[in-house]
Specification:
Elements: E1 2-6, H1 13-27, E2 31-36, E3 51-55, H2 69-84, E4 88-92, H3 94-107, E5 114-119, H4 122-128, H5 134-143, E6 146-149, H6 152-162, E7 169-170, H7 186-189, E8 198-204, H8 212-225, E9 228-234, H9 239-248, E10 255-258, H10 264-268, E11 273-276, H11 285-292, E12 297-300, H12 305-308, E13 315-318, H13 323-335, H14 337-354, H15 357-374
Parallel strand pairs: 1-2, 1-4, 2-3, 4-5, 5-6, 6-7, 8-9, 8-11, 9-10, 11-12, 12-13
Amino acid sequence: MKIGIVCYPTFGGSGVVATELGHQLCRAGHEVHFICYNQPARLTHRCPSAIQFHLVDVVSYPLFEFPPYTLALASKIYEVIDHHGLDLVHAHYAIPHSTAAYLAQQMAGQRPIKIITTLHGTDIILIGIDPSYRRVTRFSIEQSNGVTAVSRYLADLTQQEFTLSKPVEVIPNFVDPYVFRRRPNPLFRQQFAEPNEKIVCHISNFRGLKRVPLIIEMFREMAREVPAKLVLVGNGPDYQRCVDLVRREGLIHKVSFLDFVTDVASVLSIADLFLLPSEMESFGLAAIEALSCEVPVIASRVGGLPEAVLDGECGYLLEPHDIDGMIAAGIKLLADDERRRQMGREGRRWVMTRFHVANIVKRYEEYYRYVLEYT
């Protein structure tokens, strides 16, 4: 198949999943075209002959208060459809990607091109239900030939909010367990912690929903009971606020900030505990990446996280407001090496069974064929 993938080229969950899916489809023998305003962060040259990147060039005119990205994207999608004969366009994130894909489909006229939209979370939870975007979000989803969501929670919420006339297929996020595996590296670990110290980790886009400042405060309490260091990976709106908080709390020698890293597994491999106390998560890709590296997860019991983390088996889920409970669970795990390692092993088994890349990519391929044949 010739597949166009439209996504945000960032380290956020939707961009990471879309990019990794493209790599796997390439390995399976498909021709993949990424269409974005920048090269996706995790797009490498593992499959140079079968993956192409098409830059969306947005030109600003004095007449426009804001650059018309959706129109530029639609034009570029149509150009790729026309020049490369795509079979389908897979839009990750409803707004504006599925909207632009629909416009490109209309421009293609009689050319048989199918549109699949994958919903990742904030496109529904935050943007889609906003009155300014609600109608266009519903329209764009309805006009797609196929719709998927990364969790049952998100699929049900989408139906509840938009009362769609078509089903939403649940295809969860995935992990390549051969990439995300525990690879002990004492030399790398000693850059962050002493041998007697544990390492607590968090990876995100530092948006408000992730509550990274809260993670720093939780870690401060954990470190009073168990010798530990905190490694924060990522960047985003709350980054400077977090840096300021670390300085203010006198934690500058206990907290390390890493900007976006390409080898996330190398960081997870030195971690003993992963924290994800988000206000909302449609799935929690970072959680299953941590589990795949045998790192137990303490997370909020919200959204799709209960589908990703088995409470009491490979981590603990607590209510978002139960900060003391999360701190206590963290201290308990950091202090109990045997329990922590047992949970880590169980986490990897869970990921291998439920979220193995080979199984999930096969489901996407089957869904592509279904959409091409029956819609």
